[in-house]
Amino acid sequence: TCSVAKKELDDLEQWKEKHKPEPLKLVPQRLGGKESEAQARQKQQMMLMQCKYQQKHKREEYIKAKKAAEEAEILKKKAIQREKAERLEAKKRQEEMQRREMFFEDHKTSELLNRLDLGLPKRDSCQIANHGQESTAW
User: Fold this and answer.
1) pLDDT exceeds cutoff 60 at 133
2) What is the model's pLDDT at position 117?
3) What's the confidence (pLDDT) of residue 26?
4) Where in this chain does the entry annotate a coiled-coil region (predicted)?
5) Phi, psi (5° rounding) for residue 110?
6) How far apart are the first and last CA of the chain?
7) How far is C-alpha 9 from the geometric centre of its chain's CA atoms?
8) CA-to-CA distance for 10 and 28, rounded, in angstroms?
């Protein structure tokens, strides 16, 4: 087992040596374009400032949109509650009208009964008077 492991390690070392990357050979160049270092730094500073303002603006827009959404949600809830209150008020008015109508009907009925009671003799006297007579056969 030791000889097999040693052989595999040797094979690995040979493979690494064979596939070793070649060193890079680049022609030296001047980097940074035509700008001087001061101009590049100034440009970088301006971009950083613009980026900060853009982030601030973006954050403000997000906050405005969030507030608008919350306001719309509140208005929607208020409208729903207003509609519920209006329906409840209409229901109360309808019940009040029905109660008044029933009261009026009861009042009319009681007046009619009072008039009928005043116009007819009392039942007790009628029953006593009719009790002595025999009913006629048909």
Assistant:
1) no
2) 76
3) 86
4) 71-100
5) -65, -40
6) 136
7) 67
8) 39
**Burial annotation 7-25 (CB, 10 A radius, 16+ → b, else e):** eeeeeeeeeeeeeeeeeee
Half-sphere exposure in the Cβ direction for 70 (13 Å, CA): 6
**Higher-scoring residue by pLDDT: 133, 1:** 1
Pair 35, 43: CB distance under 8 Å: yes
Handedness of CA 111, 116, 121, 123 (dihedral sign): negative
> Do you know the residue count of the chain?
138
The widest CA-to-CA distance across the chain, in whole angstroms, is 147
Mean pLDDT of all residues in 1-18: 92
Residue 97 has pLDDT above 70, yes or no: yes
- Residue reference for tokens 């094979």: 11
The answer to whether the predicted template modeling score (pTM) of the entire model surpasses 0.90 is: no
**98-116 pLDDT, tens digit each:** 999 988 888 888 887 787 7
Question: Which sign does the torsion angle of CA 106, 108, 112, 114 carry?
Answer: positive
- What HEC string does 11-56 produce? HHHHHHHHCCCCCCCCCCCCCCCCCCHHHHHHHHHHHHHHHHHHHH
